[in-house]
Amino acid sequence: MNKKVLLKSALQILADLGLPKAQQNERSALSLLALLNLQPKRNWSQAESPLMGITPIMDWIRDHYDKDYAPNTRETIRRQTMHQFVDAGLAVYNPDNPTRPVNSPAAVYQIETSALDLLRRFGTTTWKSNLSAYLAKSVTLAARYANVREQNLVPVQIAPGKMIKLSPGEHSELIREIIQSFAPRFAPGAVLIYAGDTGEKWGYFEEPLLAKLGVGVETHGKMPDVVLHYPDRNWLLLIESVTSHGPVDGKRHAELAKLFAKSRAGLVYVTAFPNRSTMSRYLGEIAWETEVWVADAPSHLIHFNGSRFLGPYSTAEY
């Protein structure tokens, strides 16, 4: 089949499968063809199921269908096409490693087995009957894969009897340690206002509470990974969870100071690392007048604050 026929067929399939109108477009149709490795001149019966990440999908589309998406389209394909494919049970996310972090460059998608069997029958006399059978069980199928994803989420207790769940990965594991280990030690009674999530950027957000403290946020992209309010001192703790990049350096300190400039609570800047070996890679970048916490030594803080904490320690304090 030629390119136009395959593209038109892919659009028809998306409609037949009941994908939302927002996904019945060229971008999603081309992404579907990429996941099936349906190059021009191939037939639907020759559909395959390779593991493919977003960038390889974009490269495949460029190489085989002459559509060159700009690099900044990557997030659009991920959020506006692949998310919906996964939610519909049409594709599976990280089938080779379900615990892979959401923001991992190794993240991949694959056409689900039942969907592949169905799509190989497109254009045949059995298409409609097979489509009806597939649709009858597709809700169950999507729910099953949703349950698998749910099982791999990172549970975080933010208050007695209150839990949230974050996307899997080291970053979320460190956020859990910040909330469950750092906060009780250094800000007992603190209230969680915000916890970012690599999968869903607004993982948890008590926007009204932040507004009461004088801060209105319009763009979540600038938020720190964790924001805690410590009522006893009336402090806002702005905490970055660093597993691969992003300590509170001079530039980040200035960004956060600007974002929270109207805060009626005092601002405390904290960088959290999973261990000291990770911290060692960023020592030269950490801003003065900030704090550093390391999860594998949870009872200690490192103060980048000059002479404020200079003084002797008794032997019992070591």
Give a brief outline of the structure.
With 318 residues, this protein is α+β, with helices and mostly antiparallel strands.
What is the strand and helix layout of this fold?
Layout (H helix, E strand, L loop, with lengths): L2 H14 L9 H10 L18 H12 L8 H14 L3 E3 L15 E3 L1 H7 L7 H25 L2 E6 L2 E5 L3 H17 L4 E5 L8 E2 L1 H6 L13 E5 L4 E7 L8 H10 L6 E8 L2 H5 L9 E5 L6 E4 L14
Parallel strand pairs: 8-9, 9-10
Antiparallel strand pairs: 1-2, 3-4, 5-6, 5-7, 7-8, 10-11
Write up this protein.
This protein has helices spanning 3-16, 26-35, 54-65, 74-87, 113-119, 127-151, 170-186, 207-212, 250-259, 276-280, and strands at 91-93, 109-111, 154-159, 162-166, 191-195, 204-205, 226-230, 235-241, 266-273, 290-294, 301-304. 38% of the residues lie in helices and 17% in strands. Helix 1 crosses helix 2 (26-35), helix 2 packs across helix 3 (54-65) and helix 5 packs antiparallel against helix 6 (127-151). The protein contains ten helices and eleven strands. It has two domains: 3-151, Orthogonal Bundle (Arc Repressor Mutant, subunit A), CATH 1.10.10.1820; 154-317, BsuBI/PstI restriction endonuclease, C-terminal domain (Trna Endonuclease, Chain: A, domain 1). It is an alpha+beta fold. The strands form three sheets. Strands 6-5-7-8-9-10-11 form a seven-stranded mixed beta sheet. A two-stranded antiparallel ribbon has the order 1-2.
